[in-house]
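[agent] plan:
  1. take the single chain provided in the ticket
  2. run structure prediction with default settings
  3. attach structure tokens to the ticket
  4. add a short note for the reviewer (M.T.)
[agent] executing step 1
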Amino acid sequence: VQLVESGGGLVQPGGSLRLSCAASGFTFRNYVMSWHRQAPGKGREWVSSIFGDGRTNYADSVKGRFIISRDNAKNTVYLYMNSLKPEDTAIYYCKSSGDYWGQGTQVTVSS
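[agent] step 2 finished; step 3 output follows
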């Protein structure tokens, strides 16, 4: 099993980013995929999940600003992040049910 995140970077407050997580080694469409993040000095927190059928859930802190989606044909899950705030600064991790994690991608929101 391998999960590889990409798309992080430095963005100004109010800006947008799209994170991607490419999955391999398992039947992607059967697994719940989620995004988590860990800010400096804080514990890892759940951000959003998407089921194989497309149902989604979001943490209150990102609801209305972030959108999770998946492409089962490409074995990829995305996180569209809009109206970014400095408090969104964190390492963002992709996770599959079965407790497989990616290596993380850094998102920094700063002017």
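[agent] step 4 note for reviewer: The mean pLDDT is 96.
[agent] ticket updated
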